[in-house]
Design brief:
The chain is about 10% helix and about 40% strand. The chain is globular, with a radius of gyration of 13 Å. Strands 1-5-6-4-3-2 form a six-stranded mixed sheet. It has one domain: Beta Barrel (OB fold (Dihydrolipoamide Acetyltransferase, E2P)). It is mainly beta.
Amino acid sequence: MRVTFGSASAIALAVTLCGACSGQGGGQAQASAAPQGESITAVGCPVAGPTTGCVTIKSGGKVYDLATANPAVDLSRKVGISVTGRAAGEVTACGVKMSDVEVEYLGLECAGAPPAS
């Protein structure tokens, strides 16, 4: 496996943040959306959100809506992710809506995940 400086930085940040990954309530998004088009980078553990079809990540005190990620975030991996995208300029029931979402799986188990077999 080849680790670049950017990946190593994301992994280090994920290790720091993933201690808070368990217990993320998806419906606890801050009331203010980021300005439309603003670049967003978030690292944490993805979880199913408060409503059907929601996939969220909590980072920096905000909950982000990852519903537009293509391909969709695979929750069955139970690992931390690094997400980049743009603010869509609104807040949904799932969190701050993002567009142009890109996901990188970090390979770090999220708290509460059963051991890999």
